[in-house]
Amino acid sequence: MRPSFRLLSQAAKTPTRSSSIGFIGLGAMGREMAHHLVTKTLAERTQQGRPTSFVVCDSDHATVTRFIDGHSSQIAAKAGHTLVPTAQPSSVAKLCGTVVTMLPSSPQVRDVYLGEGGIMAGLQDASPTAQEDGTLLIDCTTCDRATGVEVAAKMGETYGPSSGPSSAVTMLDAPVSGGVSGAAAATLTFLVGSNNTAAFEQARDAVLSKMGARAIHCGPNGAGLTAKIANNLVLGATMLATAEAMALGVKGGLSAELLAHVLNTSTGRSWSSEVNNPAPGALRGTKHSPPADRHWEGGFAARLQAKDLRLALAAAEDVGLLVPMATMASKIYDRMESMDEYKFKDFSVAFKALLDSAEAAQAEKREAAAAREKAGVAV
Ligand code: NAD
């Protein structure tokens, strides 16, 4: 006998694994992305009468608590939705048919997917449901291509091929462009690598479209990471060039606001000059509010840009390419990463680092002159 509509709707009152969504890594980017994913999925699923469980995870307990506190009132218990905190990636994979990860870099991706208490272990616990109902794993981290390809291959080897529409467990690399402001406005661009076109379309329509403005299928697994690393090579270099130009102009007597206006209406324009200008006050009167106006707090940490340029150098070595511009930029960001006053600030703090080192060089000169004067040497 076919179940009645009434019975079906009663059965649908509890979230199932396939309707549940997990998010691991609620940092500067992840918390904004998870916010949109939860809010928009909730609205959609409440209308459909399809209860959903959201499982959120971060290795930092306080980060998870903040997210739960900020969203629990919005989860309508009467509609059957739940918001579940956990510190274990394995629990996320055990409970959810869709999992998004947004982690710092390659070591964390390996750990979260393949380590003890990781996603692979959770899929084993959820077996055979994880295979029968299918599991979609979307890694948005900017990590090295080899890690993305290897982890996706391991998932495929263990749980079925990662190509073909019937794959049981499918993993995509989907790093993002657009920064924290793009994550907050849900205007990110996802650069996706997937051997499986059907999985790409499913991820784009059901998940990525809620967190961003577009998803570009760049090719097979790893292709999204190659595209992202190439983009961030340009980003890192243009930010340094913009910081130097802004420092040059400001020290030469121009106001930051005027020089930004000149660059942004001339050929020097880029995202670094127009949206994330490194000089405080440069974008006053525009719709943009760059980290430079908040002592370079928030945004894209200098340590992450340093990491991305190292990824670019490794990728260039893999394909036998010389990249002198990226090599120089990498040295500068590595130095910023080694200094606590810059490491955690937005990478546009390169502007301050330039002025600080100019000031330090001046102070050194003055000290040397004073020392010579004291010693009675003519200066
Ligand atoms: P972040 O350091 O602010 O966030 C990373 C989060 O992952 C943190 O909350 C951390 O506690 C958590 N985490 C680390 N290890 C974990 C583990 N083993 N298990 C669970 N959680 C763990 O970094 P972010 O700025 O959000 O960047 C995330 C990724 O996005 C990076 O790869 C970065 O390069 C990329 N990205 C960042 C920006 C940006 O503007 N910040 C823009 C584009 C891409």
Topology:
Elements: H1 5-11, E1 21-24, H2 30-48, E2 53-57, H3 61-71, E3 82-86, H4 89-95, E4 98-101, H5 106-114, H6 119-126, H7 129-132, E5 135-139, H8 145-159, E6 169-173, E7 176-177, H9 179-185, E8 188-193, H10 197-211, E9 212-219, H11 223-251, H12 256-264, H13 271-274, H14 302-318, H15 324-337, H16 340-343, H17 350-374
Parallel strand pairs: 1-2, 1-4, 2-3, 4-5, 5-6, 8-9
Antiparallel strand pairs: 7-8
Helix pairs in contact: 2-9, 2-10, 4-6, 11-14, 11-15, 11-17, 14-15
The structure holds nicotinamide-adenine-dinucleotide (NAD).
Keywords:
N-(1-d-carboxylethyl)-l-norvaline Dehydrogenase, domain 2, 379 residues, single chain, binds nicotinamide-adenine-dinucleotide, Rossmann fold
